[in-house]
């Protein structure tokens, strides 16, 4: 199983990162050991600037390569909500040196995911509200209609490079409002008001 993450997929987030808005999807991968279920999240020792990035996550349900846009929706049935945790200090160093992002993004446990999976037929995935609350204060709130590349376009693009397999997860990018967490913080993610996860930073 692979975890593919889309970067800079919301213009307001690209702006807050002082990054350009991409003309093609930007992606990177996390290993399967990055996936983290459950409430506890352990602050890693190698960063001093750990940031949350709340993201809608799609699970691939069918094997496909070179998928055409008109068929892309057949390759996922369920979606959920997760966090693409990022060691922002390490990422900044990588960016400055033009190095890959793995040490900042792809470490063990860096991708918490909800236990709840929603049926795409019950929602409009192209106009879905989701949010993240940090210690009772809403810090991220967005609608998937603000994505630069929608889910079908992402699938078309990713499947040019790799076969998508059943169970692969796509983190579809984060909106503006990313920020640092500290020990004891509690993050609550919601889709259309429904609580999807609670994560405590330990
Ligand atoms: Mg992200």
How is this structure best described in words?
This protein has one domain: Fumarylacetoacetate hydrolase, domain 2 (Alpha-Beta Complex), CATH 3.90.850.10. The chain is 15% helix and 35% strand. The strands form 4 sheets. The protein has a 6-stranded mixed β-sheet, with helices on one face. A 5-stranded mixed β-sheet has the order 4-16-15-11-12, with no helix packed on it. The longest helix is centred in the last third of the chain and has 11 residues. The radius of gyration is 16 Å and the shape is globular. The protein binds magnesium ion. The site of magnesium ion (MG) has 7 residues, from strand 1.
What is the distance, rounded to the nearest whole angstrom, between the alpha carbons of the first and last residues? 27 Å
Low-confidence stretches: none
* Count of discrete alpha- or pi-helical segments spanning 4 or more residues: 4
Q: Structural class per helix/strand content? A: alpha+beta
CATH topology: Fumarylacetoacetate hydrolase, domain 2
- Radius of gyration, in Å, reads 16 Å
Which of globular, elongated, flat, extended, rod-shaped describes the shape? globular
Order of helices and strands: EHEEEEEEEHHEEEEHEEEE
Strand order of the largest sheet: 2-1-13-6-7-10
Largest sheet: 6 strands, mixed
Q: Portion of residues in helices?
A: 10-25%
How many domains would you count in the coordinates? 1
CATH class: Alpha Beta
Ligand species: magnesium ion
**The CATH fourth-level homologous superfamily:** Fumarylacetoacetase-like, C-terminal domain
Q: How much is the average pLDDT?
A: 97
SS strand fraction: 25-35%
**CATH architecture descriptor text:** Alpha-Beta Complex
Strand segment tally:
16
């Amino acid at each position: 199983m692979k975890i593919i993450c889309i970067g800079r997929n919301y213009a307001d987030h690209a702006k807050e990162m002082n990054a350009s808005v991409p003309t093609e999807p930007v992606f990177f991968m996390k290993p399967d050991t990055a996936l983290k279920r459950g409430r506890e999240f352990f602050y890693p020792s190698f960063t001093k600037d750990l940031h949350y990035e709340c993201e809608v996550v799609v699970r691939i349900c069918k094997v496909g390569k070179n998928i055409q846009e008109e068929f892309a929706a057949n390759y996922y049935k369920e979606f959920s909500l997760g966090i693409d945790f990022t060691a922002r200090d390490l990422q900044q160093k990588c960016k400055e040196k033009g190095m890959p992002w793995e040490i900042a993004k792809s470490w063990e446990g860096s991708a918490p995911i909800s236990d709840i999976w929603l049926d795409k037929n019950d929602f409009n995935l192209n106009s879905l509200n989701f949010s993240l609350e940090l210690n009772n204060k809403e810090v991220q709130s967005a609608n998937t209609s603000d994505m630069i590349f929608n889910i079908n376009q992402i699938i078309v693009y990713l499947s040019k490079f790799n076969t998508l397999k059943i169970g692969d997860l796509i983190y579809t990018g984060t909106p503006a409002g990313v920020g640092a967490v500290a020990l004891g913080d509690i993050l609550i993610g919601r889709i259309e008001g429904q609580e999807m996860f609670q994560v405590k930073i330990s």
